[in-house]
Specification:
Strand content: 5-15%
Strand order of the largest sheet: 2-1-3
Number of strands: 3
Protein name: DUF742 domain-containing protein
InterPro entries: DUF742 (IPR007995)
CATH architecture of the largest domain: Orthogonal Bundle
Number of helices: 7
Radius of gyration: 28 Å
CATH class of the largest domain: Mainly Alpha
CATH topology of the largest domain: Arc Repressor Mutant, subunit A
Distance between the termini: 77 Å
Number of domains: 2
Pfam families: DUF742
Length: 149
């Protein structure tokens, strides 16, 4: 004696027969294509650290091109991520902000910025860091922080 699928019998059927009665549960979505997971590896040529030690996450980066389209001719053969970095850097931008806006890993962004700098597409700018702060300045900062908390 067989049970009809509408009487709850479909739940007792083997999974490979359930689709015949309309109780088919789709399989999970396939994983991301391999190209998406390999893309950062391909962009950096397998490198995991930048050769340019001057580039850190707070380093300000600017493009060597203007908004008039000069960059289109010079960057025609570059991958889209590299062109996007050059376009973003028409205004000064930190490496961390580039990474966030393009949704790239910070390490990958540092390597790509270093490559673009070496190729002459980007310039980096360091802010002057004052290493010796006077005690008066430090005490004023502490007082200011206490005032706002």
């Amino acid at each position: 004696m067989t049970q009809s699928p509408d009487a709850g019998g479909a739940a007792r059927l083997p999974p490979y027969l359930r689709h015949a009665f309309g109780d088919f549960t789709p399989s999970p979505a396939p994983a991301e294509p391999a190209e998406e997971t390999l893309r950062p590896f391909v962009l950096t040529s397998g490198r995991v650290s930048s050769g340019d030690r001057e580039i850190s996450l707070e380093t300000q980066v600017t493009s060597n091109y203007d908004d008039a389209g000069t960059a289109h001719y010079a960057t025609a053969g570059l991958p889209s991520e590299l062109r996007a970095i050059i376009t973003l850097c028409n205004v000064p931008m930190s490496v961390a902000e580039i990474s966030a806006r393009l949704r790239l890993h910070l390490g990958v962004t540092r390597i790509l910025v270093g490559d673009l700098r070496a190729a002459g597409h980007l310039e980096i700018h360091h802010q002057d860091v004052i290493e010796n702060h006077s005690p008066d300045v430090i005490l004023r900062v502490i007082r200011g922080l206490r005032a706002i908390t």
